[in-house]
Amino acid sequence: MPLPIHDRPGWVLPIILIPALVLASCTTMKPTVPVIDTSHRSRNHESRVRYLVIHFTQLSFPRSLQVLTEGNVSSHYLVDVEPPVIYRLVDEDRRAWHAGRSYWQGDTNLNSSSIGIEIVNLGDDASPGVAYQQYPAAQIDAVIALVRDIAQRHEIAPHRILGHSDIAPQRKTDPGPRFPWARLAAEGLIPWPREAVVREAMGRYVAALPEVSWFQEKLAQHGFEVARHGDLDDATRRVMAAFQMKYRPEKYDGEPDAETAALLDAVTRPDGLELKSADGGTQPYKR
């Protein structure tokens, strides 16, 4: 005859174990919060942000906002066209996904060390027959104010204010040849090739243009990721075009010529760059 259920051996065990298990689970659900004393601060620190990267969206504002807030890419800031409202989409202490596979002067994965600014501009998708869309003056004013504010707060070096095409020339052309890098230089935000150095170098390179390997070496020295095999392949042309878009936007065909050589000479020489100062003068810039 089977024993009644409450008389069977082991019946008491579940009754004892259940409260113990509940108590254990409650204990593990309440981690100890450490008490942290913040009365002492080191003087040895800097911002994690080392780069500022400028993009165009290649989309209208509504579509840009949708992609950057709901898609699989993001940016810290979005600057609209009319009016040029600046939207913060990602807090600066968070990593946004705007750079993708990227490289500059040996640094990779620039998402982790940069702030991204997306500018509403249709780029080279503006309309048939239009190379790139112009940036309205008011929008550029807003971008310059934003760049200045970010660079000052994070102490970003002027030569680390870049375009997406600088850090990913095989994939990207933004912010394109219509973006006024020379205006940023005039505002003292980025260094610029010294005119006297470029002019002197032009005379030499008109007489004798360097080999392709020289151009590749100088592009790499400037900061680009570029192969140094001496062949003028499509990848090298894309890097050359990215450089030309920034410093010689009137012609960005990716072909080596005397002016491109002179500009590359200047940006890679110790005395070849200058930075505008607040009083309107210039000073040598060493990176």
Write a concise synopsis of the structure shown.
It contains 9 helices and 10 strands.
Describe the overall structure.
- The protein is of the alpha/beta class and 287 residues long.
- It folds into 2 domains: 140 residues, Peptidoglycan recognition protein-like (Lysozyme-like, 3-Layer(aba) Sandwich); 87 residues, PGBD-like superfamily/PGBD (Muramoyl-pentapeptide Carboxypeptidase, domain 1, Orthogonal Bundle), CATH 1.10.101.10.
- The strands form 3 sheets. Strands 3-2-6-1-7 form a 5-stranded mixed β-sheet. The chain has a 3-stranded antiparallel β-sheet with strand order 8-9-10. Strands 4-5 form a two-stranded antiparallel ribbon.
- It is globular and about 75 Å long.
Structural class, from secondary structure content? alpha/beta
Query: Mean pLDDT across all residues, rounded?
Result: 92
Q: Largest sheet, order of strands side by side?
A: 3-2-6-1-7
Label the CATH architecture of the largest domain.
3-Layer(aba) Sandwich
Order of helices and strands: HEHEEEEEHEHHEHHHHEE
Name its key features.
Muramoyl-pentapeptide Carboxypeptidase, domain 1, 3-stranded antiparallel beta sheet, Lysozyme-like, alpha/beta, 2 domains, 10 strands, 9 helices
Blueprint (SSEs and pairs):
Blueprint: H1 12-28, E1 51-56, H2 61-70, E2 77-79, E3 86-88, E4 103-104, E5 107-108, E6 114-119, H3 137-154, E7 161-163, H4 164-167, H5 181-186, E8 192-193, H6 195-207, H7 212-222, H8 234-247, H9 258-267, E9 273-276, E10 282-284
Parallel strand pairs: 1-6, 1-7, 2-6
Antiparallel strand pairs: 2-3, 4-5, 8-9, 9-10
